[in-house]
Recover the amino acids of this structure.
């Protein structure tokens, strides 16, 4: 049943992409979706369906807005550092901890960190995130966690946990 | 009207892409370069695609552009993460003036434990 839902989803995306209902296009889409589902269906995230709950969905939208704001801020931050003649960077890799448990939430957290101001996730081992930070402002692990992780952690906990 | 919005988005997106490329040349090591490459290029490209949506309207190319935004948002940070991890694991050092490298410290500890 779950696999069939994935299959329909894939065919739907394919149809949106080709934007035509000629039978050749649909046939190729069905075959490719079937292959993709058979080969990769077991790595599809299990918790994804949970997001359809209205409360979670509301927080997902809030997360989307916050995320967009940080992405725009990140761009101006990096642009400023690149264009500035003196290049005010102070980089290094720091270690922070997260309290999120599920794989889905951790994946979203790592990707969000990568797209936000001055930080890039290098590795994720259990609950420890190694983050490359372009401008280190503190040496203390607690403060770093506060700055880097907290801005998304609470929202993601409401969406995915 | 929507043509104008589309053109403005295109111009802003291209300038962000330009800054990202500049960062790729100016910044000192692979990790800093990835920062410029992921952030500026993600938003820049997304804005160009959004400009296409506004410019052409909601038809075949518009829908394709919207789907491409979604794919870029997922794949760009994941790719950057994979490159950074791969670079670090194959022994590429950080820039000499970097302040700290907790990842290397922790991995040395791991290596000693395994021996």
């Amino acid at each position: 049943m779950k696999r069939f839902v994935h299959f329909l989803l894939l065919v739907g995306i394919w149809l949106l992409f080709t934007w035509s209902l000629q039978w050749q296009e649909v046939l190729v889409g069905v075959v490719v979706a079937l292959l993709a589902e058979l080969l990769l269906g077991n790595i599809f995230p299990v918790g994804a369906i949970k997001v359809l709950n209205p409360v979670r969905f509301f927080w997902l939208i809030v997360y989307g807005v916050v995320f967009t704001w940080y992405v725009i801020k990140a761009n101006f931050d990096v642009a400023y550092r690149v264009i500035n003649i003196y290049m005010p960077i102070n980089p290094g890799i720091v270690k922070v901890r997260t309290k999120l448990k599920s794989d889905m939430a951790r994946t979203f957290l790592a990707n969000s960190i990568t797209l936000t101001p001055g930080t890039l996730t290098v590795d994720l081992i259990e609950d420890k995130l190694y983050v490359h930070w372009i401008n280190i402002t503190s040496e203390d692990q607690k403060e770093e966690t506060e700055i880097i992780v907290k801005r998304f952690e609470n929202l993601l906990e409401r969406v995915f946990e | 009207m929507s043509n104008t919005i589309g053109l403005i988005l295109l111009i802003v997106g291209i300038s962000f892409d330009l800054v990202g490329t500049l960062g790729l040349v100016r910044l000192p090591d692979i990790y800093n370069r990835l920062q410029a490459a992921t952030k500026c290029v993600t938003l820049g490209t997304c804005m160009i695609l959004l400009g296409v949506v506004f410019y052409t309207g909601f038809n075949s190319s518009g829908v394709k552009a919207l789907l491409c935004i979604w794919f870029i948002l997922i794949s760009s940070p994941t790719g950057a993460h994979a490159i950074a991890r791969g670079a670090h694991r194959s022994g590429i050092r950080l820039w000499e003036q970097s302040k700290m490298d907790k990842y290397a410290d922790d991995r040395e500890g791991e290596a000693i434990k395994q021996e």
Notes: The beta strands of chain A are 92-97, 119-125, 128-133. The first strand of chain A starts at residue 92 and ends at 97.
